[in-house]
Amino acid sequence: MLALVPLGSELERIMGSVRLLYTMLLLALSNAILHVLIALLVAHNPIHPYPHLMITCSMGFSGILFSMIVMETSLSGVESRSVFGLFNVPTKWYPWILLVVFQLLMTNVSFLGHLCGILSGFVYNYGLLNIFIPGTNFFSGIEKASWLSTCGR
Predict the structure, then answer these.
(1) Ranges for the Peptidase S54 rhomboid domain (predicted)?
(2) pTM of the prediction?
């Protein structure tokens, strides 16, 4: 959850507060849909060697954080990212390396939840969710509303 501070502040600066909130809700929904679809596919595949990695009961905010990592790395324009200060990887590999590292360090985390987060981030980046996103006038109108002025102070 500590990753939310740098990720959220950078994305909020780029997108705006209301659009980021809307995007996070949209990502939560797309993560959940992908999670159910992939879990159903794996559950009905009798030859899958590690079904326990895919069939999990938990899904938390970390999937959305992985989506935000994908979004932020594509928007940042940098060539490489540091993985915990240990080594650098190309930006396009960064979310996938984090997925593997987290799974190796914490074996009880939801692999499928994080994977769906990465996939949702790519779905968002490729514009496949644009049909569900209102125009910029909608978001700027809400952010300029007088009833939200107390939140901005």
Answers:
(1) 1-129
(2) 0.84
